[in-house]
Please model this.
Amino acid sequence: MSKNLVGNHIRKLRFNHDEMTQQQLADKAGVTRQTIVALEKGNYSPSLELAFRIAIAFNLPLEEVFFYGGTTNLKKQ
Model:
């Protein structure tokens, strides 16, 4: 099975924006803090709509918040 690797710079951006907390970003994006945690850990790829909402929260273009890192093959266990 292949998994798309969508990475992000959310953690770095939060700290560069007056040390914004995960909860503050979650509130701006309309999601839970747990969603932001999962995004930062790379455990979750956002929907396109959520990706845009997060980029807007930082007042940045989408490609400065998220990046595509290709694919990787994962073995079923």
Q: What stands out?
A: The radius of gyration is 13 Å. Helices lie at 10-16, 22-29, 33-41, 48-58, 62-65. The longest strand covers residues 66-73. The mean pLDDT is 89.
